[in-house]
Amino acid sequence: xxxxxxxxxxxxxxxxxxxxxxxxxxxxxxxxxxxxxxxxxxxxxxxxxxxxxxxxxxxxxxxxxxxxxxxxxxxxxxxxxxxxxxxxxxxxxxxxxxxxxxxxxxxxxxxxxxxxxxxxxxxxxxxxxxxxxxxx
Length: 136
Description:
This protein has two helices and seven strands; from the N terminus they run αβββαββββ. It is α+β, with helices and mostly antiparallel strands.
């Protein structure tokens, strides 16, 4: 039996991975060595809350979380390319999308981006995708 967190992560990663034009991805806890000058994105699933979905005995559980995707581009080239990739991710992971798998249904609640920052030699734009899921 797989963990609901594993199933949610797999659903979210699968949806992101289906985005056309996505650069290389540094998946969570997988060895990745970036090449300076080559853009990539990194991911992290952050569980935030587990709560009963309804009142009563043996209720199903609602799982809330954030799928963090950092868009990482070489510094010094301006924000345009990184902005466009962040916008593409937000559109691809748009609110009200259901990602249905055999074990869990994940619903995207919202997708927003933060301010770009330089962490030499990279320019990084954080994208936060808020989601919730119910174990099927």
